[in-house]
Amino acid sequence: MKRTKILAALLCLALLGLSSAGAQTKMTKPRASEVVIVARIQVSPAIDDDFFSHYAAFETPYAKATVDRKTWKDGKPGETMNLFMKDKGIIRSEQSVFNGGYLSTDFGKLGEVSLGKMNIPGNREIELGYVRVYLDDNAFFFFDVPIERKIVVPQGVNYVYLGTITCTLADEYFDIAHLARSDEFDGAQAYLNQVFGPRAQLVRVNLQELDVKKK
Amino acid sequence: MRRAKRAVVACAAAVLAILAMSCASAPTVPYNYNKPVEKTSYADPSNSVLVYGSARGVDAGLATFLTGSVSVVGLQLVQLNPKIAPMVITPARDGVYFFTQPLPVGSSLKFFLFSSSTSQSVVTYYRGVQGQGPADLRLTKPGLLYLGSLVLCDQAYAKTHKLNLFAADTGSTDLYPVGPDKEADALKALLPKYRATSWEPVILARIKELTK
Hints:
The structure holds 2 protein chains of 2 kinds.
Chain A: H1 2-19, E1 34-44, H2 49-53, E2 80-85, E3 98-99, E4 102-109, E5 113-119, E6 125-134, E7 142-152, E8 159-169, E9 176-182, H3 185-196, E10 203-204, E11 208-209
Chain B: H1 2-23, H2 39-42, E1 48-56, H3 62-67, E2 71-79, E3 88-89, E4 92-94, E5 97-99, E6 103-104, E7 109-117, E8 122-126, E9 143-153, H4 155-160, E10 174-176, H5 183-190, H6 200-211
Helix pairs in contact in B: 5-6
């Protein structure tokens, strides 16, 4: 009888474990062949979260926002992002999406230090396309912040820093009036150490113009 | 043994309850797209906008003969002005014609989804909320607003009315107001739904003005 009780308890635990298996875990340390891209994207004026949260669960015959992306790793609502790269086979992410020649990886949240992990290609060059921002994590309501730059990952480096990209919006249609880049290296380094431990060392990289012919 | 069974049942019930509670925490929506807007809210032509038009696919001669005629089926708009209530708008359809409920002045509309359909396939365009396309308008003044006879095509077709299958510019695919449909016909399509409302005289006056 005791054994049955123990079995029942185990069964419960197993079921609970299964139900929480969907919850996201923290990013693991990059391997020698992987790189973590670190940046912070912010938008001005700030996005009206309260307004867009109303669109979180609309349902129509054509679109169901309830089939959402579920990429709120901390459980707190906000604008999630994907980093799109013009490259082949460099992404190591379960949430990678193929979109018109671009591949994407999960890229954290708008306004926070974002981390995107991927494999380092053979020539160590990564062509960054754009960051897609999903309003309130809604797969239908997104806008793109263009980056259109190439980076070269130095030898022996696993964490590269792009900077803080501030995107000024012109109107409610998310047209972009102005893009600016600034440096908040210390804050990003502190966050990186918090996530990956004290040995993680961030390195600044140059953002090079994309070769138009190659594009 | 029986008590053990009871324990199993109780535990299973507890787990199911926890699972059910975790599902029940989905966010609620303050509006429903298919519920008609209350007559009292936006029903007046002096403070709201009735948006209408027509939407069709490209008529491309031989290509259309091969694939079957293209029709635009799914049309969805989102309201983007944070000062106005959030809305996902699915226009009512009558053939190629479409029309919305009366919408509040100040709304910024964006077609975030549309799909074209042939006898063989349905293509759905998810466009997000960025950029103001040729059919995406701000509702600045009350009354009737005609979006035009919209055609789902790329920019080159919108300019030349010729479909080049080998140089299709999919990036610029949008609803362009270059079609052959008449505004009066669109009004006649929506008139039955607005009979005996404050909109009827406005609609009739506009039809009269157009067919003069």
